[in-house]
Structures are given as structure tokens and as C-alpha cells.
Amino acid sequence: MTLRIGLDISPAIGQLGGIPRYILELAKQLSLDGEVDCRYFDGTSWHPQLPALGPGERPNPNSRLLGLGRKLAVGPLRPLARKVWKGVFHHGLERGASRLDLIHYPNYFGPAVSAPEVLTVHDLGFLRFPETLPSDRLRWLQEGLEPALERAARVLVPSHFTASELVALTGIPVERVSVVPMGVGERFLEPLGPERRAEVLARLELPVPYLLAVGTLEPRKNLSTLIRAHAELPAALRSRYPLVLAGARGWKDQALMEQITARSASGELRVLQQVTDDELAALYQSARLVCYPSLYEGFGIPPLEAMASRVPVLVSRASSLPEICGPYVRYADPLDSAAWTAALQEELETEPDPRRLQAAFERARSFNWKRTERDSLRAYQQALGRW
Which among 32, 63, 200, 303 could bridge 282 via Cys, Cβ 3.0 to 4.6 Å? Predict the structure, then answer.
């Protein structure tokens, strides 16, 4: 019998970042699977076909409505706006939920509905580093995750590290948790021609070579440590390898933006706040070194995308990153800027090892979105007791 799945895609509509990418890629894979009947909830209504999600795709009719709802939910009308929006959202969900075998909330959780619920918990950063989250997001997670876990038929996590954190910090039985790794998009596995890379870099007015860091400008990404480490490099290295940050502005970023402004004046730091996936592929492939100094990650898509691009990678020895990246990248303590400076200098003064880059590529290629969908389907079956 065909499995009838409901997927809440509303957190991905018009958004950038790791969670929207996960939702988009999972939704695309489910839409191509002829053995399941997937319906997609966009925040107000259900669709039998996958609507547009990302900022670079054709406009979704609900993008502006969802954007307005997000703005009101953090503005002066927050209490009333949240109450009204919750009612609209829940009513739309319930209209289709009764016809589903299960509903999957891929952004932690959603309202209780009549169908069995499957959740994806991406990380437990709100418990380990609560000071790095905006107050509204922190409150939402603190108040909503525990009752959602009690209702959930199955909980998906992207790594064994996150599984152990979830069990340790919430007490959920490990038997109800499924590890479902994320993937790397095909566009990052295919080398771009030199003309295409040069075209992108010219449009973005970027010098070559450069160091690259990809991620939202928010505290948990720990970009301030990387900026300090880069500033302590010898002048010749700083000048030859400027630092490029590719990521939208996030939250609690005032100190970071002041740091960026100060360093940008020297010409040794650039910020690109919005790039397309195609541009991002060119950015990775043209970088001398990709850096990921995050304090805490449930998975970590950017390091894998960089590994798929066959460039050297320097990441934090923290949380899930060693599990995901393996022995194919260089590590540094995320709280030690001097260690990052030393690692940066050694990487920049040493020629990349082609064998290590190829091994890293093979590692990254083993994480694909079809596997994510296949593992998700297995978890759906387990949630319904059919496996």
C-alpha cells in the first residue's frame, strides 16, 4: 500500500541556510519517488505537487504571507500575531492531516494534529549554547520540544552525535531515534570550468586566491574567532589571502558586524550576504581554503560541500564535525584563536595533498540526498510499525 506522507515545507519557503536546504532536498527526493504519495504544506494549504521553495526559484504565492507572519511574530504585535498565525497554520494543517498516514515536521516540531508525527531535531544547541539564540527562537524550542517529543512516533537526527545529545538531554528512549544524515548536492560534486568560475568571481568582484567561510552571521558560527585568527596572520599572508564570508545576517551580530567593519577597511575581509547555489559552487572551487569555526553543529553541510569541491578544509574539533568530516580535514579548537592562526598559516604555506583532497571528495560523495530520503522512508515505516 502506498505510504501517504505530509511534509511541512513552510520553514523553507523563501529562506536560506542549512535547515531550508535540508527541507528542499528531502522534498525534491520525495517528489521523485513513485512509491510514496507525498503532500506538501506551505504554511496555509496542502499541495499534491511540490511548490517553489527557495529564494532563487519562481515566486511562491505564500512567500509574502509567510514573510509578513514572521515579521509580525517578532514585532510589537507579537502576542496577537502569534495567536492568529498559529490558528491559521494549525487549521490549514489539520484540514489535510486526517488523510495522511503520518506528518513529518522537518524543522524540530509543529502543532499536534490527528496524524502520527515524525520530527527532525537538527541539534541541541539551544540547551548547550542558549546564549547564541534569539530569545523568541529559544523560547519556542524550550516550550515546544518536550511535548512534541512525547507525541512523536519517531525522531530523526542528522548524526550519531546529535542522537547521543538528544537521549542524554531529553531522556527520549534511543529506540525512538533514527540517524538520518544529510547530503551534498550534485552541483557541488561537478567541477566548473575555469571560465564559469572566473565569471562568478568577476561578478562578485572577488580576488583570487582567498579564504572562504560559509554560514549565517550569528554567534554559534563563531566567525569572530576566525576573523581574529586571520588578523594575526603575517601581513603578507593576509594580503595574499583575504577572508571572504558568505552568509546572510542572522541575530545577536552587533559585535560581529563591528568586527567585520573594522577589518573590511583594510581590504582583507569581504562579506557576501546572499549568493545562489551556483555561485556558491564557484566560490568553494576557487577558494584556497574553506574554514568552518562553528561552536556546535548537529551535522555541518558547508564542510562537506567544500570537501566535495576538492579544496582543503579547516573545521572546529567540536560536536558532530569530526564524525561527519572524518580524518580528511584539519581541525582546531573553536575557542582558541591562536590555534586557528597557526592552522591557517600552516595550511596556506603548505601545498595541498591531492590524495587527501580526493579522499575527502569520496567521503563527501557518500553523503547524498537520495540516501537521506531512503533513510527517512525507513524511519517513517518504523514510526508506523511496518518495518
Answer: 200
